[in-house]
């Protein structure tokens, strides 16, 4: 009964994480086509990924932003 506030918060954060995942799929699609806006979106999404990594304690999300940043930086000149 008293958990509805906590469960609502978890649902809201889960939906936000899902939205970030959808945006990452969009960025990946753009990067697949060598579009620079995909790289820009990917860099912007590093911040929410780190937030969710700490908030949910998901170890993989600690690594993904670092790998994303390194890979984007190494191929930035190839993007249109």
Main β-sheet, in a few words?
none
Radius of gyration over all CA atoms, rounded: 15 Å
- Percent helix: over 70%
- In total, the number of domains comes to 1
Task: Determine the strand fraction and express it as a percent band.
Answer: under 5%
Give the beta-strand count.
Answer: 0
The number of helical segments is 4
Query: Which sequence of SSEs, written as H and E, runs from N to C?
Result: HHHH
Q: Give unreliable regions as ranges.
A: none
Give the terminus-to-terminus CA distance.
54 Å
How would the global form be characterised?
elongated
> What is the assembly state of the chains in this entry?
single chain
Q: What is the residue-mean pLDDT, rounded to a whole number?
A: 88
Protein structure class: mainly alpha
Overview of the structural elements:
There is one protein chain. The chain has 4 helices and no strands. It is mainly α and 80 residues long. Helix content is 81%, strand content 0%. It has one domain. The mean pLDDT is 88.
Q: How does the SSE layout of this entry go?
A:
Layout: H1 4-32, H2 36-44, H3 46-56, H4 60-75
Helix pairs in contact: 1-2, 3-4
List keywords for this structure.
80 residues; mainly alpha; 4 helices; 81% helix; 0% strand
A few lines on this structure:
This protein is mostly helical. The protein has four helices and no strands.
């Amino acid at each position: 009964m008293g958990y509805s506030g906590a469960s609502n918060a978890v649902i809201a954060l889960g939906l936000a994480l899902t939205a970030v995942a959808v945006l990452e799929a969009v960025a990946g699609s753009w990067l697949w086509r060598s579009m620079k806006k995909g790289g820009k979106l990917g860099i912007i999404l590093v911040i929410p990924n780190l937030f969710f990594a700490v908030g949910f304690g998901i170890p993989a999300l600690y690594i993904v932003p670092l790998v994303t940043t390194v890979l984007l930086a190494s191929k930035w000149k190839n993007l249109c």
